[in-house]
Model the fold of this input.
Amino acid sequence: MSIVKTPCDEGVVLGPPDPLPVGVAGRAALGAAIIGSSMTFIDSTVVNVALPVLRAQLGATVAEAQWVVEAYMLFLASLVLAGGALGDRWGRRFVFVLGTMVFAAASAWCGMAGDVTGLIVARGAQGIGAALLVPGSLALISANFTRERRGRAIGTWAALTSMAAGAGPVLGGWLVEAVSWRWIFFINLPLAGLALLIVRRVPESRAQSAAGAVDWTGAALATGGLFCLVFGLIEWGSGGGANPTVILSLALAAAGLGAFVVREMRAPNPMLPLEMFRSSTFTGANLLTLFLYCGLGATMFVLPFNLIEAHGYSAVEAAAALLPFVAIMFLLSAFAGRLMDRYGARLPLSLGPAVAAAGFLLFVPAAGSGSYWDAVFPAVMIMSVGMAISVAPLTATVMASAGSDRVGLASGVNNAVARVASLLAVAGVGIVVQGALARGLTRVAWASAALALAGSVSAFVLVRSQDGRSG
Done:
């Protein structure tokens, strides 16, 4: 997980619901969506900074520290598409409220956890709440703004949630040092209460075209398959690849994910319509997402351990070290859009990951010694430039490749792919660092650079047309 939001967050709201006139309801929908999304973004970013302290106080192993992150991401990644479908059928406001309540209750559970096992289970419950809350918050904007006014609402939402994503780790680092790591979870309770108070002014809405049952079988197979894959990779990192538990877990993962593919090919209302991947551009963009966010997720997981345990940074200093990332993403997003308008999708989608790969490689000397300005800052800046060049064209390419009637679904799929990438990245970190999180940044940096370059090649080969439309 990182301080950059997943691609296509904004794109999810561009689907074709029945918009209502903007007024009190529209302002309330936007306010509730911003607060709800900010909770999930903050919780995705702040835990990494708190993990070194949390691990020491709870006596957690490397594998258990990974599960504190993975339990949340597992349910969010595997259930986010089902959460969006539920909003269309049960009502967008209802699902948003349900997700907010589950997320708040799980946050309180996290804060009161007496041991690392209880914290891991509570984080899983948080992920379930987030899987309802994330698409629900975006759907509120979609349902309560006309197409003419939706762009401005998206911009407001994106700007304020980006600020929350950037400020969250610094606030969390201060809470860890000044109060307790438990308050990084307790802080969600007043935010959730405010969101629930505001959303009362929003009318209920459903998608008129929503038909058929939610693909719960597909969701269960995806969750089970991903769980076995993550469990196998984490156990591999701690006990070696020849461990019978690892072999059995990976075999079950292959069977579960294979069954998921078969299910999605035959289901009348599949959670993931596989025919969308017939477009080489859509496939290329999602491969790029998988590789790039794997590299980013692995680096962002290991970096705080290196800064705090190897370099002696405080939790606040480790969080503040990544603030240039937020600034660069904010300042260069418009430039990336103009780059795509002028040169097409293939150039920025090939160039951006290559620049990010150079940034990842700069973390190799930063892993050992050097001041922040000499070692860490250049790596963060170059990596940020590469990500900024990539994310906006990636979002536009995914949506253009799917056609106007499937833009919301395509955005949701790409968003889920980014979350699965982070899930797999953290699971695989133990294999790369071999149990030494604080000293493993060098190996992770090399692996992340290789993944980013693989994404660059995928985009160059598969993104066929220059305007981002499938060809």
Remarks:
- Residues 14-21, 466-471 have pLDDT under 50 and may be disordered.
- Residues 24-58 form the longest helix (35 residues).
